[in-house]
């Protein structure tokens, strides 16, 4: 009887110890969730956020299923469909495409400033669309692959609230409610597929991420909360009253995906919500990647 009582006592102590080990992380997570909630609550805009731990799958979510206009962030799914159709053999990324004058629009990019529209590879148009957010290159690629095909791909990926309905810089279409749309949950799902190498192939997913990493970091609001040494694969978007950003933060010890979206922004609203959210998230994931289960910081390679 004493032997069994002793075993029971040992098991009880181990159980209590295990609870203590997990409770510290639970408290930290609750604190982080409250910080994120408070930042979002202070903003006059409608704000949605999904942040996913790409190691464990643990997720922070605020208004994850609210539909937001996407502005230039929608260019990520467009690029993905270009790669999908190339994979299917409909064309090659090295094929040369003549940019139509009908696709020339203002806003971001360089093609609009050229006197003569160039002939360039489909791959180069994709790079221009992402890294310089070139709206003319985007419109040319939409003509190439079609909105119907992009949206069919998105449904197949499970991103059912993500929809491409118009070309870039089309105020009349926007006025009719023909916006390019997504949700934080859909965007985070797409980013996870890319990070895990599950879109077409590991090589294709990696190549798309490499293009996203070339985007000018100065255009990222999330970057304000992340050290310069940490790479980010991202695409932001801005419209009147709207701000979006999809990002994979390649923190070596604990990579994470973030989709943050704002709409109904107040005119003159200070640009600080996304930046503050990013700082809180970075501090959380850095600690997850650099601390033992007791909260002691050690060389991440030593953490079991």
From TrEMBL:
Organism field: Pontibacter flavimaris
Matches recorded under InterPro entries: Beta-lactam/transpept-like, Beta-lactam_cat, Beta-lactam_class-A
Signal peptide start and end residues: 1-20
Gene3D superfamilies for the chain: DD-peptidase/beta-lactamase superfamily
PANTHER family attached to this UniProt entry: BETA-LACTAMASE, BETA-LACTAMASE-TYPE TRANSPEPTIDASE FOLD CONTAINING PROTEIN
Domain of life, source organism: Bacteria
One of the protein's GO biological processes: response to antibiotic
MF terms (GO), sorted A to Z: beta-lactamase activity
Family: Belongs to the class-A beta-lactamase family.
Name of the featured protein: beta-lactamase
């Amino acid at each position: 009887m004493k032997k069994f009582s002793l075993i029971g006592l040992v098991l009880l102590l181990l159980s209590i110890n295990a609870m203590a080990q997990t409770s510290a992380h639970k408290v930290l997570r609750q604190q982080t969730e409250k910080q994120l909630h408070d930042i979002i609550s202070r903003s006059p805009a409608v704000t949605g956020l999904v942040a996913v731990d790409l190691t464990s799958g643990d997720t922070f979510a605020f208004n994850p299923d609210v539909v937001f206009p996407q502005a230039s962030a929608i260019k990520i799914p467009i690029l993905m469909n270009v790669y999908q159709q190339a994979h299917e053999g409909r064309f090659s990324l090295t094929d040369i495409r003549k940019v139509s004058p009908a696709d020339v629009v203002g806003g971001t990019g360089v093609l609009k400033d050229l006197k003569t529209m160039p002939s360039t590879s489909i791959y180069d148009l994709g790079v221009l669309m992402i890294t310089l957010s070139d709206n003319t290159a985007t419109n040319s690629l939409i003509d190439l692959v079609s909105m119907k095909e992009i949206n069919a791909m998105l449904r197949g990926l499970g991103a059912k609230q993500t929809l491409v309905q118009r070309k870039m810089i089309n105020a009349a279409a926007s006025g009719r409610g023909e916006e390019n749309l997504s949700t934080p949950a859909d965007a985070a799902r797409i980013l996870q597929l890319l990070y895990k190498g599950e879109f077409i192939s590991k090589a294709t997913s990696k190549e798309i991420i490499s293009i996203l990493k070339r985007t000018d970091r100065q255009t990222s609001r999330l970057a304000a909360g992340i050290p310069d040494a940490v790479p980010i694969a991202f695409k932001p978007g801005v419209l009147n009253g709207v701000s979006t950003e999809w990002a994979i933060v390649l923190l070596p010890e604990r990579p994470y995906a973030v989709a943050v979206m704002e709409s109904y922004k107040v005119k003159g609203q200070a640009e600080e919500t996304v930046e503050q959210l990013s700082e809180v998230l970075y501090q959380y994931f850095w600690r997850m990647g650099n601390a033992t289960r007791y909260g002691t910081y050690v060389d991440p390679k030593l953490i079991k």
